[in-house]
Structures are given as C-alpha cells and as structure tokens.
Amino acid sequence: MRITEAKPAGRFRVFLRFDDGTSGTVDLSDLAGRGVFSAWLRDGEFERVSVSSQGALLWPGDLDLCPDALYLQLTGKAAADVFPALRTSLANA
C-alpha cells in the first residue's frame, strides 16, 4: 500500500489517495501534541505534509506515518482483509 497524494484538509486532517485508487480524509488529531507529534502544534507545521519516496506521509524532521495503518483507518477494514497472508498466518497459529 502506497500513498500517491496527500494534502491538508483542516486541523490535523489530511486528504489521502492510495495507489489502488482509494481516497478520503483521515483525522490525525488524536496524535497531535503527543511525543514527536508535538511539532504539529507549531503554526503551519502540519500543513507541510508530503509523500515520501516509499509512499508514506512525511513531515520535516523525518516524521512519518505508515501508509498501511492509514489505509486501515481510512477504509475501516481489518488488516487480514487487506493483507490475505495474515489470514493464513492466523489460521495456522
């Protein structure tokens, strides 16, 4: 799963488009102000979001978020639904 487009969509919200065509807005406000995400509280910092060469969300200072977790959050799907190999692994456990 790779992010192909990202743009700010309000306070701690970001519009995402993934390489499979899935798109929508994710609310990241639960992270804002926590640990390394405190940087987002500085004026204009959250809006500096971009997409890394690996397809992850990226902010200055090498702050990034995993595209897989964001995809699951956006779609509401379970990891096993998106990654079928997990179903096999879980069934064999």
Major sheet details: 3 strands, antiparallel
The total count of helices amounts to: 3
Query: Whole-Å distance between the termini?
Result: 25 Å
- Please tell me the overall pLDDT: 91
| Count of β-strands | 6
Q: Give the domain tally.
A: 1
* CATH superfamily grouping: NE0471-like N-terminal domain
Q: What strand order characterises the main sheet?
A: 1-2-3
Quick structural summary:
By secondary structure, the protein is α+β, with helices and mostly antiparallel strands. The protein has helices spanning 67-75, 79-82, 84-92; strands at 3-8, 13-18, 23-27, 50-51, 57-59, 63-65.
Structure description:
The chain is of the alpha+beta class and 93 residues long. The protein has a single domain (3-92), classed as NE0471-like N-terminal domain (NE0471 N-terminal domain-like), CATH 3.30.2020. The protein has 3 helices and 6 strands. It has helices spanning 67-75, 79-82, 84-92; strands at residues 3-8, 13-18, 23-27, 50-51, 57-59, 63-65. It is globular and about 45 Å long. The model has no long low-confidence stretch (mean pLDDT 91).
Topology, please?
Blueprint: E1 3-8, E2 13-18, E3 23-27, E4 50-51, E5 57-59, E6 63-65, H1 67-75, H2 79-82, H3 84-92
Antiparallel strand pairs: 1-2, 2-3, 4-5, 5-6
